[in-house]
Amino acid sequence: MKLNLLTASILASGVALFANSANAAVTTDSHGNVGYDSYDECVTAVKSGEAKFYKPYTYEKPKLLRGEASVKKMALSDVTIPDGFAASNNIATKDYSAGACDLGVGQSNGRYGVSGELVGKYIPISPDMPVNVYRDSKGNPVRITMQQCDNHFGGKFPTPIVSEMKAPDAEVEIEEERNVEPVTVSEKRTVKPTSYHVKEVIVAPSDQVERVETESGTKVAIQDAQNRAVVVGEEANREVLDRVEQSVEEVPVQKVPPQKVPAQKVPAAKIQPATKTAPATQQPRQTQPRN
Q: What is the percent of the chain with per-residue pLDDT over 70, rounded to a whole number?
């Protein structure tokens, strides 16, 4: 009795498996392309890796229709379905990263669709298939076709397959021991005062001012009347003068007199006396007698 029940159970399972296989029947045309009876069966075959993607077998150049301004060759996975088309056709996704399962149609607008055996079947389309993307004058995509043969799909855009989102890897906290050593960095900085206070103003002729290069910078030497050079400090440039504090106290002003250059004496022997020239003798004027 138990054996009969087990046998009946096995037979029932076998019938169920056969029935599922029959529901997923695949139609193959003379070119080896396949189609499925339903969209879900096509999607299942693609995700399981059993589907054979459609391959065009004819060649046609692109053909612009009314309202189309340009055409561009792209991979199907690089195409994004316009929002309006996706909303009006209840499409769950707007990308073709997982490919498409599109309803096979026949000839229209001077271009073929799929072979007669696959019309009405759902055709698996690879995301890597080259396609023609037809665009309007603003560059918006309006429809796509198979690039090699320019065959059209079931609609202006084939029905995409919703890609499965891969769950992110779990984050594992790793304890890491680190040795931290203090690092001392020596740095030399030159701090300049933000403002300057005038202690003394020295006014000197420009030809008595000399600039001397020293290790600490450029110094200013002023030559006084006794022909002695004294380094008096740094020269106040325009940047320093702009930041000079205005003091209410009187600032001493030192004026350096200009050097006197002695006059050169010329020996008397070299001086030549001036030569006097005798005035010219005037001749008496001759007059002629009158008649």
A: 56
